[in-house]
Amino acid sequence: MQILFDTANLGEIEKAVDVYPLDGVTTNPTIIKGEGRIDFYAHLHRIRELIGPDRMLHVQVLATNATGMINDAHRLLDKIDDQVYVKIPTTEQGLKAMRHLKAQGVHVTGTAIYSKIQGMLAIATGADYIAPYYNRMESIDVDAAATVTFLANFAKRAGNGTRVMPASFKNVAQVCAAIEAGAHAVTVQPKLLRAALFAPDVVSAVQAFSDDWFATFGTNELP
Fold first, then answer.
1. CA of residue 117 relative to chain centroid, distance
2. Do 21 and 85 share a domain, yes or no?
3. What is the band of 97 on the pLDDT scale with cuts at 50, 70, 90?
4. What domain range includes position 209?
5. Same domain, 213 and 124
6. What angle do CA 42, 50, 77 make, to 5 degrees?
7. pLDDT single digits (tens) 137-190
8. 11/117 same-domain check
9. Domains: count for the chain
10. Average model confidence (pLDDT) for the chain?
11. CB count, 10 Å around CB of 136?
């Protein structure tokens, strides 16, 4: 099971690296937009410095046609590093780009997946990861958990090592449901995990332990 952070915020990533069992970072143009008009490649290099060479960095292309996607992919690989997982939207042109890039040995992540058939086709191209959009599927009355289960089973049958990595979560209940449904990985906004760890009941329970110890021994430290 792998956990990635769906963010390009340097502060969030820096805090997360020493706290969470983090396997990598995923980004897309909308996530990058949230950081403002940054120096894109310098920013991505800083993310790589923070997460190190052994964690994954997924970065999305911008073009919408296969030739442009392939060119974008090589630009990312040249200007960041050759270990980047190139995110390709799972469209007809995207599938063409995925097949071309996989033939060249490039790490590929099929993204913008809203249906079983999209996921099946991305798996059949040999994508390393596929990213079904969990909450967005639920928003259009698609059974997201059933879709994840189907794709995980199909990936197992395909036997080419594709991992199902749901994205686009609204809450931690969806994250847990995706994992229970068979996801191999999840990419999550840091604020969702932090919200779970700082839930009022958790904070209250921890404070009660301290208060009870102090009431008994008059100290906040173990002897």
1. 21
2. yes
3. very high
4. 192-223
5. no
6. 50
7. 999 999 999 999 999 999 999 999 999 999 999 999 999 999 999 999 999 999
8. yes
9. 2
10. 97
11. 17
**Strands lying side by side in the sheet with 24-26:** 163-164, 129-132, 108-113, 85-89, 56-60, 24-26, 2-6, 185-188
Burial 182-192 (b: 16+ CB within 10 A, else e): bbbbbbbbbeb
Q: Are residues 174 and 197 in the same domain?
A: no
pLDDT at 47: 98
* 201 and 179 inside one domain: no
Clarify whether residues 62 and 110 are in a common domain. yes
Question: Does the active-site annotation cover 87?
Answer: yes
pLDDT tens readout for residues 3-27: 999 999 999 999 999 999 999 999 9
Q: What is the CATH number of the domain that holds 34?
A: 3.20.20.70
- Eight-state DSSP code of residue 76: H
CA distance 61 to 66: 10
pLDDT band at 133 (very low <50, low <70, confident <90, very high): very high
Residue in 62, 58, 82 with CA at minimum distance from that of residue 70: 62
- Span 197-211, average pLDDT: 95
CB–CB of 101/108 below 8 Å? yes
Per residue in 49-69, is it b (16+ CB within 10 Å) or e — as a string?
A: ebbeeebbbbbbbebeebeeb
14 and 76 part of one domain: yes
Kindly name the residue from 87, 96, 102, 170 that is annotated as catalytic: 87
Instruction: Give the gyration radius of the chain's Cα atoms.
Output: 20
φ, ψ dihedrals at 51, nearest 5°: -90, -15
Confidence of residue 69 (pLDDT cuts 50, 70, 90): very high
